[in-house]
């Protein structure tokens, strides 16, 4: 056993080795394997005894009852030997533990899991099997989400800390029964270790894995399992919703991007969002909506960011061909181009990532393996995912949008609006705060950055505008950009009072009740200011860009035909041929008069009433 090498042979079928997928398919009558799967039957045994099983092949539409396993590959090191069809077969430690806990002591149990039932080395087989994933999970009797064993978190615990999975699952069930709005009262009735364990559990890598989105969505019966403990999916989703609403501390509801814990809670809620929109076989999800929700999740193969979602997409999104021989960049470009041509909505370009070009993608194509760096952009984005109605825009079949044959250049029509004239000095941008920062430290850093940014803005007022009027405009624009239309617990007047207290360093003089409210937001504002960079245009208009895009003096700001009034884009000349790099969407603090003029110009642009220039984006 010790001399075995990982994946030394393909999975066994009926007692013989299968080295070529086509040979396997020819053994299946008529269908040539396009609708065939393998199932693993685990022989009965006690926990800890050697695992023994056998693989059989079946028509996907005519299978015996089986359990579908959802799990994470983790480090994907195949070191644990089990016996399949009389021969040794290597699996990961996580799979070995899952099968050990899932098998019965007194009878066989049939399961499907990708690392054993699919020959992962065979690209052709993998292409076919991934197309069947939705059917495999949809037709299983149940899906078990294997999250690991209870003691998995022990190495991360501090002295005196301990976990109790049973107590955590009891708490989750109680939250589900009472409703997530009753979260504070329910938590108060349970021992502290229950919530502590539940939060530790949400940090596990399972909830960040991309493939589990589809696996959780497709079956009516989904159960979370940790060792011997089981919990319904609806209960963990209700608990995550309650934690996100009320939090375990005063920052938990902020979805603080620097906190893995909050990101993981968002991951569970994102998974549940997709599940609620998938009616167990009736797929209304749009691929781009799903990618927006799930981008940045963990996976081994970047192509799976798209392939893993096709099983829960509507018909329009299922024409993407699953082919693991296709280069990642080619796949991402094809999906982007197809989406733009289908939706005829260039608001889609706001989904692109500033790092795309550095990694071989055009600046106009999103890299779905990245999350956005700037939360303001997420809030302001209102991409619809379908063709705009009752207005002009991109004319199908015209030269309004043209892709080069190799899908590396995108030519669009647009109008130059402004030029960036002043940019916030990067040295004034605060450090990235972590979740342990105190209120006092927040206020010190906020005072520094706000005073410096206010000076830049008020030193360059609009024509005829006083510096005090400019200051009022800045404070209001900061509130609008920071909140992004979200529900908040303060009024514009309270915001101004808070701002004044910060820059005059008199926050201690605020009433206790107000200080408690602002403690919910000061770290969030500091995080937002870390991600943002202020600029002024040649017309004196105040704007905000993602800091990581690195806008510069001289960068043009344009409106594209086919985009709505919500989207203005910063671009940068890339070559003497006239190519441009898309930096991304920006937030502009228009006055009411400027807003009306902007909306009218965008309408005229989309109706063909404005002279346009062609911009070649690379």
UniProtKB/TrEMBL annotation:
PANTHER family (alphabetical): ANKYRIN REPEAT DOMAIN-CONTAINING PROTEIN 39 HOMOLOG-RELATED, HETEROKARYON INCOMPATIBILITY DOMAIN-CONTAINING PROTEIN
Residue span, Heterokaryon incompatibility domain: 66-215
InterPro entries, per the entry: HET (IPR010730), HetReg/Transcr_Mod (IPR052895)
Source lineage: Eukaryota, Fungi, Dikarya, Ascomycota, Pezizomycotina
Pfam families: HET (PF06985)
The name this protein goes by in its record: Heterokaryon incompatibility domain-containing protein
């Amino acid at each position: 056993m010790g001399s075995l090498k990982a994946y030394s042979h393909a999975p066994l079928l009926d007692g013989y080795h299968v080295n070529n997928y086509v040979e396997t398919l020819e053994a299946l009558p008529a269908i040539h394997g396009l609708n065939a799967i393998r199932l693993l039957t685990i022989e009965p045994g006690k926990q800890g005894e050697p695992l023994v099983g056998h693989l059989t092949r079946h028509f996907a539409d005519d299978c015996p009852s089986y359990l579908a396993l959802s799990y994470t590959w983790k480090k994907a090191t195949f070191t644990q030997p089990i016996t399949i069809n009389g021969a040794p077969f290597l699996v990961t430690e996580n799979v070995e533990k899952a099968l050990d806990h899932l098998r019965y002591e007194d009878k066989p149990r049939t399961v499907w899991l990708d690392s054993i039932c699919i020959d992962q080395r065979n690209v052709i087989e993998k292409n076919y099997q991934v197309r069947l994933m939705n059917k495999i999970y949809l037709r299983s009797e149940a899906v078990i989400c294997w999250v690991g064993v209870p003691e998995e978190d022990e190495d991360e615990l501090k002295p005196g800390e301990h976990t109790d999975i049973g107590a955590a699952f009891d708490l989750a069930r109680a939250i589900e029964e009472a409703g997530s709005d009753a979260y504070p009262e329910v938590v108060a009735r349970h021992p502290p270790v229950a919530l502590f364990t539940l939060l530790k559990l949400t940090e596990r890598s399972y909830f960040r894995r991309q493939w589990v989105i589809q696996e959780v969505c497709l079956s009516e019966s989904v159960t979370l399992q940790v060792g011997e403990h089981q919990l319904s999916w609806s209960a963990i989703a209700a608990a995550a919703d309650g934690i996100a609403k009320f939090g375990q501390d005063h920052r938990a509801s902020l979805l603080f991007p620097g906190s893995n814990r909050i990101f993981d809670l968002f991951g569970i809620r994102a998974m549940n969002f997709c599940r609620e929109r998938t009616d167990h076989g009736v797929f209304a999800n749009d691929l781009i909506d799903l990618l927006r929700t799930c981008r940045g999740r963990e996976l081994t193969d970047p192509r799976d960011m798209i392939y893993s979602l096709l099983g829960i997409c509507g018909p329009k999104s299922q024409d993407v061909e699953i082919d693991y021989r296709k280069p990642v960049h080619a796949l991402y470009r094809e999906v982007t181009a197809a989406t733009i041509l289908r939706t005829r909505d260039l608001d889609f370009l706001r989904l692109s990532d500033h790092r795309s070009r550095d990694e071989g993608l055009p600046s106009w194509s999103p890299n779905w393996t990245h999350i956005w760096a700037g939360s303001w952009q997420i809030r302001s984005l209102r991409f619809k995912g379908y063709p705009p109605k009752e207005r002009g825009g991109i004319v199908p079949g015209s030269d309004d949008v043209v892709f080069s044959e190799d899908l590396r250049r995108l030519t669009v029509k647009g109008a130059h609006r402004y030029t960036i004239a002043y940019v916030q000095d990067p040295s004034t941008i605060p450090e990235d705060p972590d979740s342990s920062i105190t209120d006092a430290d927040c206020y010190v850093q906020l005072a520094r950055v706000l005073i410096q940014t206010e000076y830049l803005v008020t030193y360059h007022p609009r024509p005829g505008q006083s510096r005090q009027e400019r200051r009022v405009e800045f404070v209001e624009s900061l509130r609008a950009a920071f909140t992004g239309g979200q529900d908040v617990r303060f009024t514009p007047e309270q915001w101004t009072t808070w701002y004044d207290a910060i820059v005059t360093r008199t926050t201690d003089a605020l009433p206790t009740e107000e200080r408690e409210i602002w403690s919910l937001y000061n770290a969030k504002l500091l995080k937002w200011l870390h991600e943002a960079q202020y600029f002024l245009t040649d017309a004196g208009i105040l704007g905000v860009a993602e800091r990581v895009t690195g806008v510069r003096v001289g960068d043009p700001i344009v409106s594209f035909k086919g985009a709505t009034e919500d989207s203005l884009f910063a671009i940068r000349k890339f070559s003497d041929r006239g190519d441009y790099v898309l930096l991304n969407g920006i937030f502009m603090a228009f006055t009411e008069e400027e807003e009306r003029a902007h909306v009218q110009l965008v309408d005229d642009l989309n109706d063909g009433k404005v002279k346009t220039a062609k911009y070649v984006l690379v």
